[in-house]
Amino acid sequence: MPATPDFRSFAFATDRVRASGKHVGRNVYWKIYVIENVLRVIVNSVLSAQIGPNWWSVAVDRRIAQNAANRRAQYARQPWHSQPGGHDIYCLFLSDLNEIVRANSHLFAPIIADIDQWMARIEQIRLPRNIVGHMNWPTPTDSRRIDVVASDITALADSLPSIGLPLRIP
């Protein structure tokens, strides 16, 4: 079966848009979902272990926490829509999550020895994530980069309990 082409490369047809959307969703978007949510669990788990259950008030920059609170308030004003997860970490962008890791890298390093490399890898997929999240077509290179990070972050998460870090869903 031939690869689905980007609909924007052809004359407009709703069937092409539909096929493109299914292709990006089936092959890329779900991996972004995995990356962001596994990263949320890792951040929550490491900081809960290193700081305690109230890590948010200790480890999160005031600006990031305020942005999350503002986003949460937007959802609260429209309760008929779907709501993010119960913890404010679900109101953050990928760049915010990476900033929390950067600011607290000294707490991550004892558990994830290559934490600096992880921060760089997350930063490398930030723009491709935005392309996909805003319903655009990633390049083959960006798709492969997302594939690798999704695979590697799940492997990282799967390895953490074996070194004594219980994974905690925020």
Structure notes:
The protein has 170 residues and is mostly helical. The chain has one domain. Helix content is 65%, strand content 0%. The chain contains 7 helices and no strands. Helix 6 packs across helix 7. The radius of gyration is 18 Å and the shape is globular. The mean pLDDT is 95.
Query: What's the structural domain tally?
Result: 1
- Rg from Cα: 18 Å
Number of DSSP strand runs: 0
Q: Unreliable segments (pLDDT under 50, ≥5 consecutive)?
A: none
What is the structure about, briefly put?
This protein is 65% helix and 0% strand.
Which short descriptors sum up this protein?
single chain, 170 residues, mainly alpha, 7 helices
Q: How would you summarize the topology of this molecule?
A:
Elements: H1 14-50, H2 55-59, H3 62-76, H4 94-103, H5 105-108, H6 115-133, H7 140-159
Helix pairs in contact: 1-4, 1-7, 4-6, 6-7
